[in-house]
Amino acid sequence: MDKGQGPAGLYAFGSNGNGQLGIASDDDTSTPQPVHSSSINTTNIAFTDNLLSSSPQHHGNSNKDSTTRPHVNAIKPFHDFAAGGNHTALITHGGRQLFMTGSNKDGETLLREASQVFKPAEVSRCLQHQPPQQQQLNKDQGKESRGRSTDSNKDGNSSIRWRSVACGWAFTIGLTEPCRPTPDSHDTIAASNNNNQMVYAWGSGSFGELGLGLGRYKTGGQAIPITTGLLGTRGSSGTRFDLVKVRAGLRHVLLLAKETRSIAGQDNGTITTVLMGWGSNRQGQLGVLTRSSDGDSTTTMPFTEKELRGKFMEPTRIVISAATTRRQHGGSGADAGTRIEDEEPEILDMACGQNHTLVLFSNGAVYSSGLDKYGQLGPRAAAVERNSEEGTDKGKKVDFRIGFEQVVGLPFVDSISCGWNHNAAMDTRPLVDDPTAMTTIYLWGRSDHGQLGGGLPYRAVAVNLNRGAGDVPVGIVQVRIPVRRKEGSGEERKGLEFESLVSYSCGSEHTLAMTQSGDCYAWGWNEHGNCGGGVDNTGNKDLLDVPTPRLVQFPDRPSSLPSEHGGWVTGGYGSSWVWS
After folding, report:
1. Which residue of 55, 165, 350, 514 shows the fewest CB atoms closer than 10 Å?
2. Which regions are flagged for Basic and acidic residues bias (predicted)?
3. Mapped to the 3 state alphabet, what secondary structure does 149-177 carry?
4. What is the DSSP-derived secondary structure letter of residue 420?
């Protein structure tokens, strides 16, 4: 491996005008190129080792829903990864370090300048307004980490361990791991209700996506903690939040948290998952939100529809819940296996498109809200009659929805992904018992560039969007990848066999998938070469749309793969990353 180059198995291709691919150039490429890191010494070891030591993620059974079984995703090379308009961020596994690359025009990368390679975020220089107890805990944890691992580096990145990161058009939101006191810190504040978790915003955005309150549209190259709205009242009214993950669309942000309520200072054992949101809700992409009454988080007041279709400048609670699940408990004696209880599913994940959002629950149900111009909200149980945006022309088609409703027609799924106007979902549970089990990607939404891969209809539902003017077909398709046999292998083909898919992702207007055998496929919009067309023998790039899944060709890919290999793909704004 050359100095300065990242792990040989990490590749990127597509839009790269600002160096957001991290391939040491700012040229678009339709041929997958190795990703680079500028760190050569300690940080390069952390960057590399955390990639190569990753293992398949196994998720335990939900304690809320008996239908949720363990599932497995692809071998994930990072703890978290996010692609923005012209910048990219990743968090390593063991050290929880933050690396960034790409444009820094608006301070969206926490680097001194724009970069064409991944560099550790200059956290110690850029973090602003840390509470004194947080600063002391950072010092304590930094001393501890220096004695046991390579987490520390000269840029001060070790003082913060990151949990989740999200990138929008020109902004980034970062969530830190809980800060717990070391044995010699004697910091009683650190053991408070919220473990001193912090949510930072950096970059720019005029739609409230920074979450910093009125008048804060830029951060000036610094990461500023979000202490407004619901995040500003944590710990009050007997409420404790454990912040789980953050996700962003073009101009909106969602934050998932686990809420524990206490009475008289004692937890009552009730833990629920809640969503907070901020940024643009012009098309209903945040859904319905509620505001606290006089600072009391237990009492809320609804917004008017006019208020909902605006900008939310600070974290606000989102109203969403899935249908309860009937669960049978074992019990004992004569009541064994007969006790039935209704339980509310947990929120597991969310995905943000350009102007819509998906939310995944532990019972395998997916809910959607926002723009529905291209059917990206999916089929729903019943058509909802709505007025036009102005509320006067009742015959005008309304192509958005404010409020989360279930996507009907989907089977149980345990993962979701959003493009700008299309979506994908998959159930990976069959892979737990049988690594060769067939898995299918389910897709719906816009397909003018082939984003849905020419999939076969899985479920088509007629939805009336025009108040009697006629049914508009909105359906879900499934994409399967046929087994690819080597030429001249002599293998006999019996019927049509399909590859097991272990990873998939929606880019802005394209889709990626990785098979169990390690092959990467892409389809959809390909203007920047993000579907990996490569260069022909005359030197011309293949930048035509790809209507059906096409095998991505790697110029210098390893010829053999480890037996436990699962691969990983993710898409960005006209960009693609593959770990193989």
Report:
1. 55
2. 140-154
3. CCCCCCCCHHHCCEEEEEECCCEEEEEEC
4. S
